[in-house]
Amino acid sequence: MGMAAWVCFDCRAAxxxxxxxxxxxxxxxxxxxxxxLGYKIPVPPKGKARGWSALRDQLAREHMQNxxxxxxAAVRDRHAxxxxxxxxxxxxxxxxxxxxxxxxxxxxxxxKCLTIHQAEPSRCFA
Length: 126
Known about the structure:
Elements: E1 3-8, E2 13-18, E3 35-38, H1 49-90, H2 106-116, H3 121-124
Antiparallel strand pairs: 1-2, 1-3
């Protein structure tokens, strides 16, 4: 298995764990939780303040981009659901055996009728 790095930006300390490790990693120096870096990003030497600053900025940019992409995906999903709801509501009501609760497909129609009208199944499937 490969090793991934977790870093503490305050102490400039790096901790390595297996890639499959799923827990939180405390800093060996200060005890605060470390930030996950992965296994491909190189950790700068402890004395290189500029390298640590650049690494922190890079991670902040990546987190911001990921959050932005997640927000866009959520808006697209919500928009698609709104369109689907509008499409379904625009469909004509099912005037078949049970018009009290129209649904799109006949099999879903039968299941819905049976669950709603268990006491009177003949009302739905006359």
